[in-house]
Known about the structure:
Elements: H1 3-15, E1 24-36, E2 40-50, E3 53-58, E4 66-70, E5 75-76, E6 80-85, H2 98-107, E7 110-115, H3 126-139, E8 143-146, H4 156-161
Parallel strand pairs: 1-4, 1-5, 6-7, 7-8
Antiparallel strand pairs: 1-2, 2-3
Amino acid sequence: PNAASRDQQTLDRLTRGKPDPKRRVLIKGGVVMTMDPAVGDFARGDVLIEGRRILSVGTNIRATNAIEIDASNTIVMPGLIDTHTHLRQPGQEHKEDIEHGTRAAAAGGYTTVIGMPNVDPVTSTVERLRDALALYERASVVDYNHYPSGAVVEEIPALAAAGAIGFKVFMIAD
């Protein structure tokens, strides 16, 4: 297979199912964003990851039982976070859905997305927030959260108590 199809196969292996806390990934030979004044902002090297934790950053790292990714001629940097995604599920899947939107996010380097409440029905109650998070739990391939709407003022305390990370406030009919 060509390089593009190998990269897609690797991405598929890394994003299927729930994260395995023991999965090891070794990213080899990339230009690593270090933000380390001793070596400069970028340095050629390797990154060893286990589950969700970076175990080592350096050169010539060796690891057994690791998925190895050749990062030659690429920049290796921390995952990006998109705090404003329109994944449109539930109710508007013809525009976008959680699985495909988060697979695209992962392919673009995003490791976390936060969905907007302009779905159908609008995420404006604790029950709807829990339902939305359950959809993400089943379909997302990256970390996630979801902003409820703060348009129903009486619901804000209950939504906050239920763990809402913030609120999206805009004019929307519910």
